[in-house]
Design brief:
single chain; alpha/beta; 8-stranded mixed beta sheet; binds flavin mononucleotide; about 775 residues; globular; binds flavin-adenine dinucleotide
Amino acid sequence: MRIVCIGGGPAGLYFGLLMKKENPAHHVTVVERNKPYDTFGWGVVFSDATMENMRAWDPETAQEIESAFNHWDDIEVLIKGKRMRTTGHGFVGIGRKKLLNILQARCEALGVELVFNREVDSDLEFPDADLIIASDGVNSKIRNRYREAFKPDLIMRPNRFIWLGTNKSYDAFTFDFRRTEHGWFQAHIYKFDESTSTFIIETTEDVFQAHGLDTADEARSVEFCEELFSEILDGAKLMSNARHLRGSAWLNFGRLICGKWSHFNGKNHVVLMGDAAHTAHFAIGSGTKLALEDAIELTRQFRKFGATPDNIPDVLAAYEEVRAVDVARIQNAARNAMEWFEVVGSRYADTLEPEQFMYSLLTRSQRISHENLRVRDKVWLEDYERWFAARAGINVDPDGPPVPPMFTPYRVRGLTLQNRIVMSPMAMYSADDGLPNDFHLVHFGSRALGGAGLLFSEMTCVSPDARITPGCLGLWNDEQVSAWKRIVDFVHATTSTKFGLQLGHAGRKGSTRVAWEGIDQPLEADNWPLISASALPYMANSQVPHAMTRADMERVKADFVAATKRGIEVGFDIIELHCAHGYLLSSFLSPLTNHRTDEYGGSHENNARYPLEVFRAIREVWPDDKPISVRLSCHDWTEGGNTPADAAIYAKMFKEAGADLVDCSSGQVSKEEKPVYGRLFQTPFSDKLRNEVGIATVAVGAISEADHANSIIAAGRADLCALARPHLADTAWTLHEAAKIGVKSIAWPKQYLSAKTQYETNLARAAAGPQPS
Ligand SMILES: Cc1cc2nc3c(=O)[nH]c(=O)nc-3n(C[C@H](O)[C@H](O)[C@H](O)COP(=O)(O)OP(=O)(O)OC[C@H]3O[C@@H](n4cnc5c(N)ncnc54)[C@H](O)[C@@H]3O)c2cc1C
Ligand SMILES: Cc1cc2nc3c(=O)[nH]c(=O)nc-3n(C[C@H](O)[C@H](O)[C@H](O)COP(=O)(O)O)c2cc1C
């Protein structure tokens, strides 16, 4: 086959040498616009997994690369006068120039034709090629030529960065955060040979401009950075790499995804590889890895199908199918890490204490969890757990086993929770006339015995017409007070678990069937009239509500106040006002459901006016030493609906009105929603609200292991973790998870104590694997 690689970066060179090695009869040419052995850039980092892959495909290059590698384990973080270090993180770094020189030399040895100093304008310059590799980097001319076919989606990210180097060797991957009068800058520093380190400096656009860096020339930029990072530079100079744009100017990172990776131009097959096909932010240092792994995968597919021109279409389809999945996974992790650095100044640097800031930094991609950190650096993690526990008010024994973050107590107003686990509100549709019964006693009682710090009632309705279904619980009469009191008293008398009351009104989502008879479907008979912010039905076949009048508002507010007073009588420890999921108060907050033109609609202030009025009314009667939480839909997942930025505005308003916590849920406001589910999928909303608005939060949604909860709480992404479905599956979720992570100090109910040791021993045995008989 005749193969031409346009662009002699890692992708083009490595693919060229692999194919030539597969079959020396292939004619392989790599065309590069730069001079031989002349390249830009400083150091790049790799993981051990990439090296292993390279070792399998070409041991010669792998060996050369390995002997030129610099390996280091430590990460050091500098912020606000503190210097902190952790180990066990295992990176290898190599100079980009060194890497390319090794690949170039190997290409030459194998007989790949290397053409330098040639700028390629079009793939049509190579009419005889069977296959053209567009490995011409992120600004690929070839990809842009066929933009219709490749469908590139390039998003320029808001931060500015400059890629510099320094002749100083750092023995750890170093992150240095510096505040100026205008805001924060961060440096990502890692050595790549005995005497040289990469030094990438990053900041936000507004800080960049406030310092006049948009009009500064290269020398001035370098001088500015040297001054700002003088402490860590310790007399060393920063160097730019003026021969290439990437090394000499402040840039924005472009995140690239392509809809398709290959195209037949009428004569030749053209396929994208490396940065021409996709980019991954330097925050997780994987661009070179992706480029090399693309080259390996395409070679693997040629080996599988047979390297002949006839097989090219099948090979290219298989290559794209395999690589697209891997690339998406890396891009996902890179996105989390990149976004962390975009908001670090506004969200974490000023607010988190250095210790917690470092934890948040280490877990920024959300691929590294609490238990991963324990494997990497047990001593550091246990010190952090002790630091966290002491901050939570635990008398820490420096020699005893540390208490993981989820098992630390949490105090808000006069309420102290024994741990950070909350049973999330869950409608059970099992009441008659809103009256709790034996099902509810057993349902809540068993979860309290199961160790959660706090139970929330299901949405408890403030009047009969506030119910979602005829099976919903209520708190509008004295009989309900007594029935609730029986349950809450049982929980208080038998366990240390606290009990919260979620109060709500169904609004336009009321008068429907119980879940198992058709969720959200209108009742077949005995419907009651509905109210909402506006006269808009939830679904096409839903009852049309009437837009609330001022008289309706007064009546409903009075119902909320009366239910709150009954909640005091019952002895609930905390109230949660349900302002989420499209129910009545939520219908005011979302522009999708609030089309009002009076003072209750049209702006954030107007949308929040009635929910805040209700909040203030219940806050007035609810005891001062008891907290109130507000549940918000932080994302409507629908075009034109609320986003986390809107949720932050509402959270701030509730905070100013006296709310203690925001429970960060999302969705269920519109049937058009397109939520993006996944592990911990709503935790970013909690993180945003907690750290930007400065209000305590509850994270909820697809949190299912102790490791998740510990990671969230330890990083300060939430104060509490609520779990719904895991509590339906396992009444003793908290006790079981404690045992799974080896925490023995959690109290089991005294009646169940004899099971504790056996359970722990069985888990330890299972973890140790099969034993010889
Ligand atoms: C600040 C920064 C830090 C980074 N740090 C890391 C890291 O630590 N680890 C990591 O793995 N990755 C890192 N990367 C990413 C890495 O540099 C790229 O992902 C990687 O180089 C992609 O390889 P490639 O071969 O696809 O493209 P490139 O390396 O961009 O190579 C493309 C080549 O094509 C040539 N070319 C372009 N157009 C033409 C043309 N028309 N004619 C002829 N030749 C042409 C170019 O001169 C270049 O040599 C970083 C990137 C940046 C910006
Ligand atoms: C059966 C069931 C009933 C629910 N009822 C309520 C409710 O009454 N009030 C509420 O705010 N959320 C309710 N939810 C949402 C949960 O509180 C929680 O936010 C959601 O299930 C995500 O958490 P999970 O992934 O841990 O299940 C309910 C969820 C389930 C599964």
